[in-house]
């Protein structure tokens, strides 16, 4: 009898303790939620989220746009192609196979893919000074040229679809390019490089290269920088922290926010601590 009553008493005490703990947890959870957000806090939160997503998106876009558009545009400008086209004539075309034989190609689809089948198109062209530049005999490697006076004389001239010799459909269709310019005896306008007279391309627009640099590098980079600055101004009291540090000759310790403060104050405190440790 006594053991049974003692067990019942213990069970009752445990149930009371469980109820008490549950009530404490519910009260703490309710207190943690705090007051509902005001309209200003909601606008602040969603503005922060939008600016952060824009900054991350523009920064990620640079990783893809720079190798695909910006690098070819810069290389094209450095090659210094003549703005006025000259007359090119296809001399021969070589269709090669094998990874070691295809270190370069007049046109290939997919700049990041390995080339196992490539097409080498060699041309000759006439400069504005009246000299003839063209293909000499033999050799499948990259050409080398030399200039003398106003005329240009090279051993080989290579025709490329662009400075990198590659692109992605539908902008670049290598099958159409090879059919149009890979037939010996075909005549067409081309632009040769003043830095390397043995390099020629079919299309060249200097303004388009500058436009690619502006659109695919300058604009995303500016957006990323501006949004990052806006986020820093919104959540980091940089000037106040610097003034307080100079006055006290030490970094101030930020005070912890109370349970009734909004979530934005907590975010500001975390960012402030991270920057202060730097």
From TrEMBL:
What InterPro entries does this protein map onto? TipE (IPR031578)
Which GO CC terms are listed, alphabetically? plasma membrane
Q: Does the keyword Transmembrane feature in the UniProt annotation?
A: yes
Biological process per Gene Ontology, one example term: regulation of sodium ion transport
Spans through the membrane: 43-70, 213-234
Q: Does the keyword Transmembrane apply?
A: yes
Q: Which UniProt keywords apply?
A: Membrane, Transmembrane, Transmembrane helix
Single GO MF descriptor: sodium channel regulator activity
The domain of life for this entry's organism is Eukaryota
Write down what this protein is called. Protein tipE
> What is the scientific name of the source organism?
Aphis craccivora (Cowpea aphid)
């Amino acid at each position: 009898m006594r053991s049974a009553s003692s067990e019942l008493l213990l069970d009752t005490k445990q149930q009371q303790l469980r109820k008490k703990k549950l009530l404490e947890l519910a009260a703490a959870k309710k207190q943690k939620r705090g007051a509902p957000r005001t309209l200003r806090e909601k606008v602040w939160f969603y503005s922060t989220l939008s600016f952060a997503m824009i900054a991350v998106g523009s920064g990620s876009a640079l990783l893809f746009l720079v190798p695909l558009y910006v690098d070819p545009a810069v290389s094209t400008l450095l090659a210094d192609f003549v703005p006025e086209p000259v007359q090119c004539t296809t001399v021969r075309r070589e269709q090669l196979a094998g990874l070691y034989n295809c270190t370069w190609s007049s046109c290939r689809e997919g700049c990041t893919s390995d080339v196992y089948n490539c097409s080498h198109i060699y041309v000759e062209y006439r400069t504005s000074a009246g000299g003839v530049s063209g293909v000499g005999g033999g050799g499948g490697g990259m050409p080398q040229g030399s200039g003398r006076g106003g005329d240009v004389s090279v051993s080989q001239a290579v025709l490329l679809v662009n400075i990198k010799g590659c692109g992605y459909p539908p902008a670049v269709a290598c099958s159409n390019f090879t059919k149009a310019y890979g037939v010996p005896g075909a005549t067409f306008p081309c632009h040769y490089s003043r830095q390397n007279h043995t390099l020629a391309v079919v299309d060249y627009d200097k303004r388009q290269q500058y436009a690619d640099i502006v659109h695919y590098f300058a604009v995303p980079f500016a957006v990323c920088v501006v949004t990052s600055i806006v986020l820093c101004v919104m959540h980091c009291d940089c000037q106040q922290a610097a003034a307080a540090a100079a006055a006290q000759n030490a970094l101030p310790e930020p005070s912890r926010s109370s349970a009734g403060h909004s979530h934005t104050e907590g975010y500001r405190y975390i960012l402030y601590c991270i920057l202060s440790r730097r």
